[in-house]
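Ticket #167: bound-state structure for zinc ion.
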Amino acid sequence: MLREIITFPDPRLKQQAREIQEPDQKIQNLAQDMAETMYENQGIGLAAPQVGELLSLITVDISGPENRDSLLVLLNPRIVQFEGRTQTEEACLSLPSFKTYVQRAQQLTVQGLDLEGKGVELEADGLLAICLQHEIDHLKGITLVEHASVLKRSMYQKKVKKWAQTA
Ligand code: ZN
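RESOLUTION: The complex was predicted; output attached.
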């Protein structure tokens, strides 16, 4: 089932997600909905708070909606080791028409749970590492807006306000 993606400045995007104790049916359904919603919106990553669920759950597939062959679902993901620096321009499904350069670690190790509740650890670099950091940020209530300059952020705020008035 497709879910609605909430967008800036929805206050839920600034909240901390809760850890998942057990991947029950509700979580399985949510993960499936999130993957579907991510592909439908041409995304390569989605975090549960973006569909209004304040739970520590992310979906990532850097093969993109055309291929859909590298889906990764992680519960309670956390970065346990990182190194290197990289900077790329990022976009976000919750921030229409917004792009900004973000400094990230180049390589990292992430631990979390899979949908069966089993512990997983994975190493990532390049686009996958960037995407994981972006989605894990969402779980802490951080979006690209927080990574941007004050000027850029306030310009975007004005733009979004204008859209709301003309909608
Ligand atoms: Zn995002």
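RESOLUTION NOTES: Residues 92-94, 134, 138 surround zinc ion (CB under 6 Å).
TICKET STATUS: resolved
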